[in-house]
């Protein structure tokens, strides 16, 4: 029975690689994957599964790099790593630890937790090892055929989803744990786990070998396949040709596993329909509970963070659970968008320094767009709710000064130094490649449908790109994307890219939305508030609640809208006090010299409590002079500010009253549901909620 199981598992993995390699040319990709000759690659692609496994074993024995994970001190958050590096004929062996991890475009202090780095030969004799840079060491093998590199890792960084260990588990994301030699990056890898406490199990996208070790085709696969080792709950299911696992640490979280399986299946099917396939035969949803929020995509797995209450809400299908499904949908869509279809600048990964691309607005923004859209298509988000969310996103894009300062291309390129390094001035200088990128993809989707009378869409473009730019190739550029859009729409998109992607022009969504029977309008007198910047990659821990109070651009010259008094600040609450979080560069507070971090004590000599600013300003008029008392560090300041006026209302999206047949057809094809029948629409209007 055991042998059969191994063969079955092996067979499915080989099949997965075959699926992927069919897109790139099977033999060359297998050669690259396993670092073998073309002749061996052809043999591997031809031989029956069990024989192919034997061939793999012989390759592994001669060329592999072996990583041994020691968990004897996991309870003290210390993990031992021993690496066997083949060193025959090598006089100078350089090893290093990556400076960042795929999925988060930020230089990390990964080496800060490294302890006791040492090297020896197979006889245990110490070898010379010298640190030459922040995370680089050079070893003199001194004739040894194999070099043993050993060190310990302090694993206490669960918030950034890199490495964490305690008495219940060890979570290890490869780029923050495993050193490598650049000269052996393409060598096959075997992972052996030692001293795991009794009862601990392993969950990972890596392939399980017959001897209990794990196999990675090369270092890139190793670091894109995190390991969750320990006590956890595991739920397994199958959709089409792929096996799925939901793994939840810590164990014992109460949830409706039947609903999870049904809802995950709907998401998988809705997203697979865009591309026509799932590019792996096995996929693992790793989930950490109670350690923050967010997620990171990996090759055939993801690591997500959520709360116990969100999973418990699966019994009632309430909002916290729906929020978790949003994270699932975002991370799973990355399986195609960025893990396979990758911008040229992100391939291959340069683990020592930043990989620059001006296309994160597609890699992340496109994933945000399709994550939410797939929930609608899967029937897990109501159409009305999704349409309302478009209005809120437009409101942000047309409100924040930063959207007029930084382009989507620049936001993508500067992710390393700006987006992932938050500051109080971001609202004035930056735009989110997540939220505005998603809005740009919405516009492209509906614009392609408008220009082609719904014969093509962004789905068509993404699938075409996925098929023409397989992983292992050069990746796609902005010109490739423009050319693909133009080929499928028989029209030019260059002006749009110049103005709205390379430039900072407002996204003109009106005509595109109207194609699907949706009207973008400025809704007077009901402030919806700014949509939080949805960033699945956001740091754990969360930010303090904030209330926004900011200027809004004039909606249109033809629409008369009342103005209301504005101070031009965003506040956050701290101990009941109103702390200035951001000062908008086009508002009166900015001109008056109010700074982020100031605490507003009084407005017109009366105490200002957190969350009450909008209410207090309701009774005032643009042009009114107000007196503020601020606490800046230990100093009390008195500042007079002349209030500005801003349009009283917010951007909103609604279905038109009398859609054409064409609009109904686009709506149904885009959202996966028919235009609501008149009766349903009447009922929804009566519903005050
Ligand atoms: Zn993402």
Fold and architecture overview:
The chain has 689 residues and is α+β, with helices and mostly antiparallel strands. It folds into five domains: 2-62, no CATH class; 64-231, Immunoglobulin-like (Sandwich); 235-336, Neutral Protease, domain 2, CATH 1.10.390; 344-524, Neutral Protease Domain 2 (Neutral Protease, domain 2); 546-647, PDZ domain (Pdz3 Domain, Roll). Strands 4-7-2-1-11-14-13 form a seven-stranded mixed sheet. Strands 22, 24, 25, 26, 27, 28 and 29 form a seven-stranded antiparallel sheet that branches. Strand 9 and strand 10 form a beta hairpin. The model is unreliable at 1-61, 527-554 and 682-689 (pLDDT under 50). Bound molecules: zinc ion. The site of zinc ion has 7 residues, from loops.
Short key terms for the protein model shown above:
single chain, alpha+beta, Immunoglobulin-like, Neutral Protease, domain 2, 5 domains, 22 helices, globular, disordered N terminus, disordered C terminus
> In order across it, which strands form the biggest sheet?
4-7-2-1-11-14-13
- The CATH first-level class of the largest domain comes to Mainly Alpha
Q: What class, by secondary structure content?
A: alpha+beta
Strand count, sense and barrel status of the largest sheet are: 7 strands, mixed
For the record, give the distance between the C-alpha atoms at the N and C termini, rounded to a whole number: 57 Å
Give the helix proportion (percent range): 25-40%
What is the alpha-carbon Rg in Å? 27 Å
Instruction: Sum up the overall morphology in one term.
Output: globular
CATH topology of the largest domain: Neutral Protease, domain 2
Spans of at least 5 consecutive residues whose pLDDT stays below 50 are 1-61, 527-554, 682-689
Q: State the domain count.
A: 5
CATH architecture of the largest domain: Orthogonal Bundle
Strand-residue fraction? 15-25%
Looking at how many chains there are and whether they match, the oligomeric state comes to single chain
CATH-level-4 superfamily name of the largest domain: Neutral Protease Domain 2
Q: How many helix segments?
A: 22
Overall pLDDT score: 87
């Amino acid at each position: 029975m055991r042998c059969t199981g191994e063969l079955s598992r092996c067979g499915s993995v080989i099949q997965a690689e075959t699926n992927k390699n069919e897109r790139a040319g099977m033999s060359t990709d297998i050669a690259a994957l396993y670092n073998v000759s073309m002749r061996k690659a052809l043999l591997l692609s031809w031989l029956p599964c069990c024989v192919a496994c034997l061939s793999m074993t012989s390759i592994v024995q001669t060329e592999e790099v072996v990583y041994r994970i020691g968990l004897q001190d996991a309870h003290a958050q210390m993990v031992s790593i021993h690496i066997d590096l083949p060193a025959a004929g090598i006089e100078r062996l350089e090893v290093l630890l990556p400076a960042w991890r795929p999925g988060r475009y930020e230089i990390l202090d990964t080496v800060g937790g490294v302890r006791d780095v040492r090297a020896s030969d197979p006889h245990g004799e110490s070898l010379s090892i010298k640190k030459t840079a922040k995370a680089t060491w050079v070893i003199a093998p001194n004739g040894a055929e194999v070099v043993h590199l050993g060190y310990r890792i302090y694993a206490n960084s669960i918030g950034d989803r890199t490495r964490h260990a305690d008495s219940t588990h060890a979570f290890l994301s490869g780029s923050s744990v495993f050193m490598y030699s650049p000269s052996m990056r393409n060598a096959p890898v075997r992972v052996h786990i030692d001293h795991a406490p009794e009862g601990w199990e392993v969950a990972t996208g890596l392939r399980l070998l017959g001897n209990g070790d794990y196999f990675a085709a090369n270092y890139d696969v190793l670091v894109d396949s995190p390991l969750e080792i320990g006590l956890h709950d595991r739920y397994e299911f199958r959709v089409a040709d792929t096996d799925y696992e939901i793994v939840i640490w810590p164990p014992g979280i109460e949830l409706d596993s039947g609903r999870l399986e049904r809802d995950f299946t709907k998401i998988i099917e809705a997203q697979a329909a865009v591309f026509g396939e799932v590019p792996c035969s096995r996929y693992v949803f790793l989930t950490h509970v109670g350690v923050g929020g967010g997620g990171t995509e990996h090759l055939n797995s993801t690591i997500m963070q959520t709360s116990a209450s969100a999973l418990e809400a699966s019994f009632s299908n309430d909002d916290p659970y729906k929020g978790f499904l949003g994270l699932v949908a975002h991370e799973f869509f990355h399986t195609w968008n960025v893990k396979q279809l990758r911008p040229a600048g992100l391939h291959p990964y340069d683990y020592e320094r930043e990989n620059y691309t001006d296309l994160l607005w597609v890699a992340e923004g496109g994933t945000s767009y399709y994550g939410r859209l797939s929930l609608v298509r899967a029937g897990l988000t109501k159409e009305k709710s999704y349409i309302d969310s478009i209005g809120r996103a437009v409101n942000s894009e047309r409100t924040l000064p930063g959207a007029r300062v930084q382009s989507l291309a620049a936001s993508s390129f500067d992710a390393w130094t700006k987006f992932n390094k938050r500051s109080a001035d971001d609202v004035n200088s930056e735009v989110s490649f997540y939220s505005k990128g998603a809005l740009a993809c919405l516009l492209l989707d509906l614009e392609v449908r408008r220009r082609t009378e719904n014969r093509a869409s962004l789905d068509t473009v993404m699938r075409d790109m996925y098929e023409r730019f397989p992983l292992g190739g050069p990746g796609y550029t902005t010109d490739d994307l423009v050319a693909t859009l133009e080929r499928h729409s028989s029209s030019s998109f260059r002006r749009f890219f110049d103005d709205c992607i390379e430039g900072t022009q407002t996204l003109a969504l009106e005509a595109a939305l109207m194609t699907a029977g949706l009207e973008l309008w400025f809704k007077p007198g009901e402030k919806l508030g700014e949509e939080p910047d949805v960033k699945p990659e956001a740091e754990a821990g969360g930010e303090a609640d904030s209330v926004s109070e900011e200027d809004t651009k004039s909606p249109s010259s033809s629409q008369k809208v009342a103005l209301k008094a504005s101070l031009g600040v965003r506040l956050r609450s701290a101990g009941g006090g109103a702390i200035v979080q951001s000062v908008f560069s086009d508002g009166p507070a900015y001109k008056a010299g109010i700074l982020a971090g100031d605490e507003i004590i009084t407005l017109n000599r009366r105490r200002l409590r957190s969350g009450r600013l909008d209410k207090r300003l309701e009774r005032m008029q643009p042009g009114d002079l107000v007196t503020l008392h601020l606490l800046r560090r230990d100093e009390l300041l008195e500042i007079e500010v002349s209030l500005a006026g801003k349009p009283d209302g917010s951007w909103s999206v609604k279905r038109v009253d009398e859609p054409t047949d064409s609009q109904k057809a686009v709506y149904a094809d885009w959202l996966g549901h028919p235009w609501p029948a008149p009766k349903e629409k009447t009922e929804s209007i009566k519903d005050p909620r």
